[in-house]
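Researcher: Let's run the pair from yesterday's discussion. Sequence first, then tokens, for each.
Model: Starting with the first of the pair.
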Amino acid sequence: MYAQVCTRPDITFAVNALGRYLSDLGLGHWKAVKKVFRYLQGTKDHMLTYKKSDQLQVIGYSDSDFAGCPDDRKSTSSFVFMMAGGAISWKSVKQTLTATSTMEAEYVACYEATCQAVWLKNLISSFHIVESISRPLVIYWDNTAAVHFSQNNRNFTRSKHFDIKFLFVREKSIHTTNG
């Protein structure tokens, strides 16, 4: 888990999924753990690197799987934020609600990324090293319906929990891009 938290964002999803079964590991889980270790062995030369740049910009990427947990059909939200060519923040977490569509799962993932973007923007602003941080951060996500929903002035949802996430993302004026 240390590798995933500190240096290897590429294994975050797998470690998160395996972590759900720590109290009741079966043979299939152990095989999956061995696959993660084999992957790490084969990619031991991969590391986080950062490039010197005059234009430091934070860019986020958000994604989700829809109903990916076989136990309760909850989705997993994942995001990564990059700056100077390397990851500076990443997370993969099971969603607390059960999404009823791919669009809802993607939108919840973007909400999680937006919360992190607000925190990152405040942190980086306090350092006074990135002047472009005053602009809205860009978050790329790949669901056309969710992007359209975020840019539409009307609210179509009937669920209060989803309305709150929708309004938070819109209020923070984070650019949402289909990418």
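Model: Moving on to the second of the pair.
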Amino acid sequence: MEHPLSNAAKLALFEVTTCVNDTAADEDRLSALQNELKLLILFFLADESNTRDVIWTSALSRGWGNLWSFVPYLHFRDMRRSHLPDAIDNTLCQYLDRTRKYVLPLNLYTNPFLCELSLNGYLITLERGIFVNWNSLVQLHLRDMSFGVGIIRDVLKGRPKLHTVKLLSCTGVCNIISEGLNTLIVIEHMIALPKLEILATKLESLHIEGSVNFVGKIQIKDVSTLVKARLIVSNIIPITNNNLMEVMDDQVQLLTSVNHAEDITIRGWCVKVLTILAMKGLASPSLDCKGLMVLIDMILEDLPATEILLQDSFV
């Protein structure tokens, strides 16, 4: 979509670009720009990857100042800043006494007609004598949840109709065991979790997303019916020569456990590890799938290795 400049903006741009020799060395020419023109520049700069650059323009000159705050869309998500959740938690904890805690009603756990459940931000602990009875449960979506010992195991155990489970940033999940589960989505970025085991004999679709530290703790025991696998592994911890081999072993193990799926999508360190193995001429997991999608985030130096990887994938 084009944004035509007003006559005033065109005039300001002309004056700045043509009158360099007539301007004193210490004059702030950026401040001389019309705000309309500066906002237009920021508008084209402010996509998801350049929000930081937009904010940095406030340091260019006094004329830019807080103009960045008037841009319609700003994206502040940065998964590399693992200290951010702690900072937010510490701030919110100062106001805990002003909040009202909501306790889930006990009859929710014993509702045999419950088909779909979505929860966000709860701490789930069950008292003795309370059993989960969700025999009609089909879909379970949980986000920012914390579970007591064995809770998620009891929730998933013996659910014949359970089709889809989606877990986003949940703690206390040590194993996912289900005989009828069809779709499993596990997304984690920040929280350090213990080992996670997945055993779902009828699973057809698996989506795992998180850091190398999180994904490295996942053990896939049995997903023999898997049709579609999506593995997105980010890097929010430094990878050094000391832990590189461990990271590579974890990724190879993960890829090997899903290499029988028909459609596989990989991104991040799954791709990085395969390219390293290809460049060194080492054996890598054979991906015998009908469809392979490789999502690549790379620098120019990665191109030769990726070319070798793609050649090996289609031999």
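Researcher: Give me one sentence on the second I can quote.
Model: Residues 97-313 form one domain.
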